[in-house]
Amino acid sequence: MLACDDLQRSLEFYRDALGFQETYRFEDDGKPTFVALRLGDGSSIGLGVVPDGGAGIHGLPQRPISGRFFELCVYCDDVDSSIEELAALGHPVLMPPADTPWGERIAYVADPDGHPVMVTATKT
Asked: Across the chain, which distance is largest between two alpha carbons, in Å?
């Protein structure tokens, strides 16, 4: 589960820009507060709204965030064109596409809350 400042903005990134499909939605007074998304046949992520000073069900504070607590990796067919599309949609590119010594091409963008998302593909 990823705590979001603006659920709609995060849905536009994960669902609309990265291609995740919505599998579940929970609403409170008609307003979505949690959405589950799946990419392909297996990768899933939950997006939930947690206000500043708010705590999770576990009782630990989830806001304000200090630092970055996770890094998501999303595989694609073409890193360069994917990064071009994400940048055109206004998502900040943290690292442009580059080849790695372990045989992948990778790049990083920031999601709407500033979390790093690695976009990667196996080099052919």
From this structure: 50
Backbone torsions φ then ψ of 8, nearest 5 degrees: -60, -45
pTM: predicted TM-score of the whole model, two decimal places: 0.72
Along the chain (124 residues), what's the average pLDDT of each consecutive run of 10 residues? Answer: 86 94 90 89 83 58 61 88 96 93 90 87 84
Beta bridge partners of 4: 49
Q: Report all structural domains of the chain as residue ranges with CATH numbers, in order of start.
A: 2-55+62-122 (3.10.180.10)
In the structure encoding, which two tokens stand for residue 109, read together?
A: 């963008």
Burial class from Cβ neighbours inside 10 Å (0-12, 13-18, 19+) for residue 15 reads middle
